Amino acid sequence: MTNSGSHTLGQCLLSDSTDLPSESTRIAPVSKKPLRILIAADTFAPDVNGAARFAERLAAGMVARGHEVQIMAPAASSKFGTWTEVHEGQPMVVHRLQSWRWYPHDWLRYALPWFIPRETRRILDTFKPDVVHFQSHINVGRAVTIEAAKRGIRIIGTNHFMPENMLEFTLVPKGLHDRIIKGAWRAARRTFGRAEAVTTPTLRAAQFLERYTGLEGVLAISCGIDAHNYVPSFEPRTENRILFVGRVTGEKQIDVLLQAVALLSADLKVKVEIVGGGDQKRNLQNLSQTLGLSGRVTFTGYVTDAELATAYTRSTVFAMPSIAELQSIATMEAMASGLPIVAANAMALPHLVHDGQNGYLFEPGHAQDLADKLTTVLTATPDDLNALKRESLRLIGAHDINRTLNTFESLYRGEPVIDAVTSAAAAHSGE
Hints:
This protein has 431 residues and is an alpha/beta fold. The protein has helices at residues 50-64, 116-127, 139-150, 163-167, 177-192, 203-213, 254-263, 281-290, 305-314, 329-336, 349-352, 367-378, 382-396, 401-413, 423-428, and strands spanning 36-40, 68-74, 81-87, 90-97, 100-101, 109-110, 131-134, 154-158, 197-200, 219-220, 240-245, 270-275, 297-301, 317-320, 341-344, 359-362. The strands form three sheets. Strands 3-4-2-1-7-8-9-10 form an eight-stranded mixed beta sheet, sandwiched between helices. A six-stranded parallel beta sheet has the order 13-12-11-14-15-16, with helices on both faces. Helix 2 (116-127) packs across helix 3. The two termini are 36 Å apart. Residues 48-227 form the Glycosyltransferase subfamily 4-like N-terminal domain.
């Protein structure tokens, strides 16, 4: 996939050094019988979000290891059917389900639940997978777990979902939100309850899922990242550039970032780059004008992978004001690019941002606190700035994609795994 934009994400425990596995060791050879893996998702490339990006990387990584992977996901347009697609350079069979546009959202498409079971039965009976890995408990995940359970197929489930995020794109009155959220968690409990193993990207997200569903033993497994795709720069900075990457939607709280930028000293001559698309783009453009930031804030929309990597490299600091991140692949990409991070002290972001080490955490929704933390980074001495950058590079080592692939491969085979992919990173912060 080349038009990705906002990506907005077991084995080799890395040492505390910044050294990453060499090019030749990133794809581990398959020493056992290759698996047939069906990845079922309600959102998949070319969709632009963390869940879709994770599923794409996971599928491509498994194909590169010699496994046979097929994808089951809603069609990205009115065209539906089964064909071969190439993702992350790897060919795979993709079953595109007939889908409809969800008009409260600017691009989301979904498959109707009463059409999915028939297609699910066809796919399972022709492909005969060894394991089904579903990425949400909604329409596709619910149907595939019911049918896979009937056939005795091993089921693995990963949660990237928060009901609060879904409600932003519905027409449900706010007075009914609590009831809908409770119903969504009950539905999650039923679907994830069919899985032999349930995962989510971080320890905090695992605890969150257990608390609201009653599930036990949820594994925290990082979405993983290939740090070799990103280029850190330790060249002296000639400008102060703040970067945000992600969906341009309400829960990302980009408005708080813009308000914080308006509070920064004019002497810093800050430029802001917002990479990604979403329904709030026009509102935020209007806000930037109202705040007197015209000419200083650029909304790029979706960009290519190469353009995204360049945006990370040329930036001074990465800002993530979102309050609803179950991991934040964009923040991980920024760390792999050697950027200091200033992020909201909410959900899973404290697993990535260790306050005072590779960046700073600010009080969610508090523009002045965000401005203060950004000022600390933007006025840091070259030595202090480089120390923050080096720590981001060191910490991202715990999220190497090879570890993630190895852990999921063990889960697919029914082998015991050590829940160390994200706990290793948390150990550094004493959590």
